[in-house]
Every structure is written in C-alpha cells, then in structure tokens.
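Reply to dn_fold:

You asked what the input looked like. This is it:
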Amino acid sequence: MSAPEISNPALVLAGAAPGIGGGLTTTAAVAVAIAAAGPPGEGVVIAELGCERARGPTMLATERARQLERTLSTAGFEAAARGRLAWLRLGDEERWPERLSEAIDAAGPLRAVLLHLPASRWREALEHERLKPTAALLRAELPAQRSLAALAVGELGARGLRVRVAPRAPGRIAARRAFAESPARFSHPPNPPSLTPFV
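and this is what came back:
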C-alpha cells in the first residue's frame, strides 16, 4: 500500500530568496491572516524546517491552537501554541517529509500548513511523493531580484501552484505581532495587503 499524500489541508511552501531575510516573518504574517479569516475550529500550522530550537508557547492563544499543541506534543512532535497558530519544529533530517506528513495526520482538521524552509530545500519539497504543495510564498527583493522571482514564479506555476511574491517583509512591530499574535490584544491581525490568503 502506498503512503498517503498530503492533499488537505492546503500546504504552502514559504521562504526567502537567497541572500535576504524576512522570510519567516512574512510567513508568520500570512499564516495569521489565514487563521483570522477562517472558521474558529480550523487550525493553522507553521512548520519550521531546520530551526535549532522549538519555540515556546505564548500566554494568550486560541483554544484550537492549544489543542493542536497538545495533540502534536502527545504524538511526539515539538509544537507550541502562539496566538492563533501552532508552531511545529521539524528537524533537518532525511525523513522530514514523512515527519511532516505524520504530524498533519495527527493534528486532525486543519485549514492550512505553511512550511518554512531554506531555498536549498524547495526542490526536495516539490518533488517528494508524500508532499503535494498547493501554493508558494516567496520573499524577494524587488526590483533587484525580479529575474530570480520571475523564474521561480514560472516554475512553480508550471507545477500548478498558486504563487505570491512578497517584495518587502513586515516591519518590526508587525513582525512582533506575527510571532506572538494574541487574539485578545489585536483586533486586526498583521495582513500584508498584497498577499491574498491562499485558502
């Protein structure tokens, strides 16, 4: 029997073009926007590939985010509830695509999973039989990286992915809101206006 494929929830590959920062903050801001736009019972997960340490939970988090934290932790994953999101740490190991698939299976109903990964690992994610990404979020400096962004958009679009390019990262205050977004404190989540949610 073949291994199950990730087809639901939406799987968004996210990261920055080589040589620039802001990929993770942009990913977090878009994840918060997706979570805020969806039904309360549908969770959103940010999976970080290769981060050195797992992130800690925040004091204020939604019940769905806390439920995801408990469920994933019980299943043996490093997860933390932060605002509307559950953050999942993936070790940079050979079996990381399988581990991601297992985490999604364990999590239950989800609206979206945003997989933040370095540029060097995108092709692996695109070609792995267990992963079926539906969209991509690329942080790139424009116009300096316009040619690189155009090539990436063309290739990803040819694979059937919806693509958004973020020409700038969230500012410092918006970035702090995205990393520790609190539903009780912020009535309007950080939502880059040029980045339409993918789901």
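Residues 10-179 form one domain.
Hope that clears it up.
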